Amino acid sequence: MITDDPDLDVAIRLVADARLGSASFLARQMKIPFAAAAVFLDQMEVRGIVGPAHGSRAREVRVRACHRCGRVGTRGFYVREPDWVTGNRTACRNHDACDRRR
After folding, report:
1. Gap between the Cα atoms of 45 and 22, Å rounded
2. Are 51 and 26 part of one and the same domain?
């Protein structure tokens, strides 16, 4: 659990996995109103998860999520080479710690 709010946790994981910080993306994925998704993005900006808003563009995502254990953070990740089946996959650099978190 990243925060005390389970809905915000879901929003953070979605943004980190997709590397896309937009209110319309969150609203579609979570099936919530656009205004609620915008509030989640503002809360993520305060926490340093996404960058500031730039008009109608998506916000910069400053965190990554491990596809194996689900850890969200800014350091200790690597991006595997893309392939046509899985696409880009982010994983923890320390595989032993990642296995313990699963």
Report:
1. 12
2. yes
